[in-house]
């Protein structure tokens, strides 16, 4: 009987840049949309809210960067958003604490 290697399944992921796929692009686009809404709201304030061009640019680009940062994959395999959702789920579950009342070193 001949032995041969069975190839494992390769999952392909479309990427714009290394680590940037559809999910990250969507998160950055949603952040840009939120930034555009914030920019329009700042323009409704009297005298443009007193912000210069640098403040308005930051107002648009900061939500986009936060959205992309939440969706970017980390070295552990998940994203920051996945980690935050896991931490929230862990905080909402019941925990069992084991106390040893006979120990003196406490």
Main attributes?
106 residues, mainly alpha, 3 helices, 52% helix
Decide which structural class fits the backbone. mainly alpha
Percent of residues in helices:
40-55%
Report the oligomer.
single chain
Shape: flat
Give the ordered list of helices and strands. Answer: HHH
Number of strands: 0
Please give the alpha-carbon distance between the first and last residues. 63 Å
The number of helical elements comes to 3
Q: Biggest sheet: strands, sense, closure?
A: none
Strand composition percent:
under 5%
Q: Average pLDDT across residues?
A: 79
Work out the radius of gyration.
Answer: 24 Å
Uncertain spans: none
Structure description:
This protein is mostly helical. Helix content is 52%, strand content 0%. The protein is built from three helices and no strands. The radius of gyration is 24 Å and the shape is flat.
Produce the secondary structure layout.
Layout: H1 22-44, H2 53-71, H3 80-92
Helix pairs in contact: 1-2
Task: Give a brief rundown of this model.
By secondary structure, the protein is mostly helical. It has a domain at 14-72.
